[in-house]
TrEMBL record:
Gene Ontology CC: one annotated term: cytoplasm
Catalytic activity: oxaloacetate + acetyl-CoA + H2O = citrate + CoA + H(+)
PROSITE patterns assigned: CITRATE_SYNTHASE (PS00480)
Protein name as it appears in the record: Citrate synthase
Cross-referenced CDD domains: EcCS_like (cd06114)
Location of the active site: 270, 327
PANTHER family according to UniProt: CITRATE SYNTHASE
Pathway(s): Carbohydrate metabolism; tricarboxylic acid cycle; isocitrate from oxaloacetate: step 1/2
Keyword Transferase recorded: yes
Length: 392
């Protein structure tokens, strides 16, 4: 409670805020949302119920959940003008670029008449963001495929509705596989929130200036995109494809140990977890089950398993407490669900929108909150006088 933390490499950090949303114990491998262990939520809850929990602090009664799900369902549509907006992107634009742009532009559709000092308006913005992010994500995918955009079906539950908007094409009825929806729902639960990670801290930093919620969430998407953060799931698949077979795993391990190479094992390591990422454990088990149930046999799973086995036995990784993180196996499941690689981080963003929104609500409701203003250690020049250009 001093608010000071010391990382393994001796770096110290001071807490950027107080929050009651998520608790992590990096050494013990503990993750809890509002006090509920991630393992229990993964087994018993749904993503939309977890989104309610993160936002409101309590699990909903049946009646409250029904009304929340109804609110979300009735805010999934996009303003028709979004079609012109999305039409301005190149057909091969990265979906994260499109998602960031579209979310930020929501400020021009829904912002100019909202007073975010009013808790009702804050709640409405939160509902709009959680409801529309899957519609926007699916629109980005369909635009890249040259397919017509799909309207959200309000009679479907959240994740099934998203898969329908992603993959339904007029020429044939979509075979909705319940295994796929259940697997994606679980991945969304596991990615929903994670305390003050880089993108959530960014959302809170932007929120601390009083910027509108759409600008805040768009800044979270920007931060998440980086390969050191949410972009890692896409980078893991690229790495596994480059390794190609279990026989090449040792070369990858050796390259990751050679600092000069600048190569890191994507999906390994974590700023906070110096033990197994509890989410990675759940996703690891889930990967076998989902691929089995879908009848998918992906050789990359053998490469991933061999890489994990070799790294966990290697002193370099053991000494640095580098374990698989949430991103190591998730891409193999997304691939089995026929989600294209460049949409993997978009999946992360859909899930994390619930966490980002919960943190924004918590921050905006705090009358004591101040503008974020980190300080620095100055390592530049001492004072010196200006020199005219002809004297330099
Ligand atoms: C996410 O913060 C969150 O909570 C994030 C997240 C969330 O839910 O929001 O959990 C999601 O972003 C997970 C992380 C996904 N990123 C990756 O998988 C990319 C690969 N991993 C890394 O680049 C790295 O591990 C980080 C970015 C995750 C952490 O980087 P740090 O803090 O620089 O790592 P560190 O200080 O713990 O490194 C200690 C040592 C260093 O070597 P030395 O200088 O001590 O000799 O371990 C080395 C690092 O070079 N190292 C790695 C490595 N990660 C760290 N070496 C090889 N492969 C790696 N993946």
């Amino acid at each position: 409670d001093t608010g000071c933390f010391t990382y393994d490499n001796g770096f110290t950090a001071t807490a950027s805020c107080k929050s009651a949303i998520t608790y992590i114990d990096g050494d013990a491998g503990v993750l809890m949302y509002r006090g509920y262990p991630i393992e229990q939520l993964a087994e018993h809850s749904s993503f939309l119920e977890v989104a309610y929990l993160l936002m409101n602090g309590e699990l909903p009664t049946e009646q409250k959940f029904a009304s929340f799900a109804d609110d979300i369902a009735h805010h999934t549509m996009l303003h028709e003008a979004f079609k012109q907006f999305i039409g301005g992107f190149r057909h091969d634009a990265h979906p994260m670029a499109m998602l960031m742009g579209m979310l930020g532009s929501m400020a021009s559709f829904y912002h100019n008449n909202h007073d975010y000092d009013d808790p009702e308006q804050r709640h409405l913005a939160a509902i709009r963001l959680i409801a529309k992010v899957p519609t926007i994500a699916a629109a980005c995918y369909r635009y890249s495929m040259g397919w017509p955009l799909r309207f959200p079906r309000n009679n479907l539950e959240y994740v099934t509705r998203f898969l329908h908007m992603m993959f339904e094409v007029p020429s044939e009825p979509l075979q909705m596989n319940p295994v796929a929806a259940k697997a994606l729902d679980l991945l969304f639960i596991l990615h929903a929130d994670h305390e003050q990670n880089a993108s959530t801290s960014t959302v809170r930093m932007v929120g601390s200036t009083g910027a509108n919620p759409y600008a805040c969430i768009a800044s979270g998407v920007a931060a998440l995109w980086g390969p050191a953060h949410g972009g890692a799931n896409e980078a893991v698949l690229k790495m596994l494809n480059e390794i190609g077979s279990p026989a090449n795993v040792q070369n990858a391990i050796d390259k990751a140990k050679d600092k000069e190479s600048g190569f890191r094992l994507m999906g390994f390591g974590h700023r906070v977890y110096k033990n197994f990422d509890p989410r990675a454990k759940i996703i690891r088990e889930m990967t076998y089950k989902v691929l089995n149930e879908l009848g998918v046999n992906d050789p990359l799973l053998d490469v991933a398993m061999k890489l994990e086995e070799a790294a966990l036995k290697d002193d370099y990784f053991i000494q640095r407490k580098l374990y698989p993180n949430v991103d190591f196996y998730s891409g193999i499941i997304y691939k089995a669900l026929k989600i294209p690689t460049d949409m993997f981080t978009v999946m992360f963003a859909i899930a994390r929108t619930s966490g980002w929104v919960a943190h924004w609500l918590e921050q905006q409701a705090d009358p004591e909150q101040k503008i974020g203003r980190p300080r620095q250690i100055y390592v530049g020049h001492d004072k010196r006088d200006y020199v005219a250009i002809d004297k330099r």
